[in-house]
Design goal:
Layout (H helix, E strand, L loop, with lengths): L5 H11 L10 H5 L2 H4 L5 H4 L4 E7 L11 H5 L3 E5 L9 H4 L5 E5 L1 H4 L15 E5 L8 H6 L6 H10 L5 E3 L2 H13 L12 H12 E7 L22 H4 L5 H10 L5 H7 L1 E5 L7
Parallel strand pairs: 1-2, 1-6, 2-3, 3-4, 4-5
Antiparallel strand pairs: 6-7
Bound molecules: cytidine-5'-monophosphate-5-N-acetylneuraminic acid.
Cytidine-5'-monophosphate-5-N-acetylneuraminic acid binds next to helix 11 and helix 12.
Length: 279
């Protein structure tokens, strides 16, 4: 086992891991005429010029008290995750800008997230993913997704046909998982990577440079799970359980171009995007 250099790790990702939306010409999606339903531009057509500077902001409670809001908003594009709220009370720490939001399928399947009414889910690019089997049969997945989100997706697409809402092709995150496993000495859980790690890979493919906030925990590390939930205390949120967050975080740290001080003080890691490297 020979660990790859920063450049070679990034090139592994660049050569193998690109976001893919649902294959509308395959399996059930063909029969259901998803090519009519899906946004007319792919993610890469929509953002064809890419972004110079990007930020990905994790949902970690450790971001509270960081005062990073302005720094985060100064990036050309900002990615946020799941139900991460943007109220005035958090603005100083997390900022207010959102360009893309990556969500797991629970956000669409479970009405308690108010996907259809909450303004945090409007006027941005959105991507939703659902855990599918590694050896994925699309028909089987459509009939039996981890969370029942396909009907919400179909409803939403008909309500807002101009909106850019994509479903991830499971092959995207399994390709990412393969690269993570091949570059981790131990065996990792055979579960899809976390939303955070998937989002980092998507932003690397769109941006020249990516700053990731509170994925690598700062000195504000806490047993509190999310910055927006007081009583959710669970160290697994930061260290991982179902998702192998420790493997993901160590992988990202190995690509860090920023300083140690940025990690401890800001929980910040700086990565070159695919556009910045020749492989
Ligand atoms: O918690 P979650 O993740 O929404 O967080 C988004 C990403 O931020 C990183 N994170 C979060 C908290 C923390 N203390 N440290 C972190 O590093 C992780 O990279 C994480 O991916 C998910 O990945 O989709 C997840 O979603 C939640 C939950 O479904 C959503 O928040 C919606 O409520 C999952 N929790 C449960 O299912 C109970 C979580 O396991 C993974």
């Amino acid at each position: 086992y020979m660990p790859l250099s920063k450049h070679d790790l990034l090139c592994e990702l660049k050569n193998r891991v690109w976001f893919k939306t649902l294959p509308s010409t395959e399996g059930p999606f063909k029969a259901l005429n998803y090519s009519q339903l899906e946004p007319k531009d792919t993610l890469y057509q929509l953002h064809h010029d890419g972004f110079k500077t990007c930020a990905a902001v994790m949902n970690s409670a450790a971001i509270l008290g960081s005062n990073l809001g302005e720094e985060i908003d100064s990036h050309d594009a900002v990615m946020r995750f799941n139900s991460a709220p943007l109220s005035e009370q958090y603005k100083a720490d997390i900022g207010a800008k959102t360009t893309l939001r990556l969500m797991n399928s629970q956000l669409l399947a479970n009405p308690s997230y108010n996907f259809f009414t909450d303004p945090i889910y409007r006027n941005i690019t959105m991507i939703v993913w659902d855990p599918a089997a590694y050896t994925g049969d699309m028909q089987e997945w459509y009939e039996n997704p981890d969370a029942n989100f396909f009907s919400s997706y179909e409803k939403r697409r008909k309500m807002f046909p101009q909106e850019n809402l994509y479903i991830t092709d499971p092959r995207f995150y399994w390709e990412l998982w393969d690269v993570l496993q091949e570059n981790t000495e131990a065996m990792i859980h055979p579960n899809p990577p976390s939303s955070g790690f998937q989002g980092i890979a998507i932003m690397l493919s769109l941006c020249n440079q990516l700053d990731v906030y509170e994925f690598l925990p700062s000195e504000r590390i806490s047993v509190k799970c999310h910055y927006y939930e007081k009583w959710n205390l669970n160290p697994a949120c930061t260290l991982g359980w179902w998702h192998d967050l420790r493997a993901e975080k160590y992988f990202v740290l190995r690509m860090n171009l920023g300083t140690k001080d940025d990690v401890t003080k800001k929980g910040k890691v700086t990565l070159d995007g695919y556009r910045a490297v020749d492989c």
